[in-house]
Specification:
alpha/beta; seven-stranded mixed β-sheet
Length: about 350
């Protein structure tokens, strides 16, 4: 069991009635907690959502607070402090004075810094410190009026082939405030990508998806991400730029295996972080199995840190891998799904 969950269970006497776990790890905490309270989950991680569904736990996937208001909430600290600020705002706008918010996280994940955000809403105390984690409690004495999600968006402009694109990024989404270097290195090559039915794996705020739709109105884009905030950001980016919504299909996924099987191209600045931890499974899986989802002569375009061994993995799967660019610490990698390999 995740050490954060172990710390929560050490203080099970604080939990009763209905308890909403926000952003919890995929482990057995809910079943254990159900001996003392009625637990449900709100998560924006689709892989975790599927896990809880398989465990018959009541779970909500998305960017909005679940429809049923609980007696208590336990927030597992997200990596982004901006995302935690949004989550706290949403929570206190749904709860009432006197209800409790619990916050749990790893010390190396910044739980003490995160706990300072609780002070604005009521008396805050540390309940436990163990397993390199901390558990905090706040009794709400100040609530807020719920603000529209659009007020939490960061915007910036990107230029792609003489086109201007305004990017909308919600809290916690990769590269929320400005274009990341890897995507900037890949953008000049978008005009070379085969048109048709395309997938943007790890779509983030929709920079690649929207740019591909803007470059060719005939392109159909499957924007894929594990994160509900990323999928919502991509939709906002399309809408703000007046792009045809029929070009966009939002796809909540756990990996490339969830992609359609008849794609003309897959483009990606693949993710390699899960929370505060590094995790290459999704991006390595993309390199090794993308070909299964491509039509004959379909294309794979990836931008990745120079030090990663993706060219080797792609060559093993496709029989070849071209390095289209190597600059600013990133490589643009290309492969074609030719027959016979």
């Amino acid at each position: 069991m995740d050490p954060r969950s172990e710390v929560v269970l050490r203080q099970h006497q604080y939990f009763s009635g209905t308890v909403l776990l926000i952003n919890p790890p995929a482990d057995g905490l809910c079943h254990e907690l159900n001996q003392h309270a009625q637990a449900s989950v709100w998560t924006w991680n689709f892989a975790d959502h599927q896990y809880f569904e398989q465990q018959s736990i009541v779970t909500s996937f998305g960017v909005h607070f679940p429809s049923v208001t609980p007696d208590q909430v336990i927030i597992f600290v997200p990596k982004s402090k901006e995302l935690l600020r949004y989550i706290l705002h949403v929570v206190v706008s749904h709860l009432t004075q006197g209800q409790s918010i619990f916050l749990v996280g790893e010390k190396k994940g910044g739980v003490e810094r995160a706990a300072k955000q609780l002070i604005d809403y009521g008396k805050t105390i540390k309940l436990d410190s163990a397993r390199h984690c901390q558990l905090w409690q706040t009794k709400i004495d100040k609530t807020e009026q719920l603000q529209p999600l659009e007020q939490w968006v960061q915007q910036y402009t990107v230029e792609v082939a003489q086109n201007s694109l305004t990017v909308c990024a919600l809290p916690g989404v990769f590269s929320q405030r400005q274009l990341d270097v890897g995507t900037a290195v890949l953008l000049p090559y978008l005009e070379q990508i085969k048109s048709g039915k395309l997938a943007d794996f790890g779509c983030g705020a929709g920079v690649l998806s929207a740019s591909l739709a803007q470059l060719n109105p005939q392109n159909k884009i499957c924007a894929m991400d594990v994160d509900a905030f990323a999928l919502c950001s991509t939709e906002m980016t399309f809408r703000l730029n007046g792009l045809n919504p029929d070009q966009l299909q939002l796809c909540a996924v756990t990996g490339i295996h969830d992609a359609p099987s008849d794609l003309d191209a897959i483009v990606s600045n693949p993710p390699f972080h899960q929370g505060i931890h590094t995790d290459y499974a999704a991006s390595e899986g993309l390199c090794t199995t993308a070909k299964k989802h491509l039509k004959a002569n379909g294309e794979l375009w990836i931008v990745a840190n120079r030090f990663l061994n993706y060219p080797v993995l792609i060559e093993q799967a496709f029989g070849q891998c071209q390095i289209k660019a190597d600059q600013q610490g990133f490589k643009v990698l290309y492969a074609k799904a030719t027959l016979g390999k």
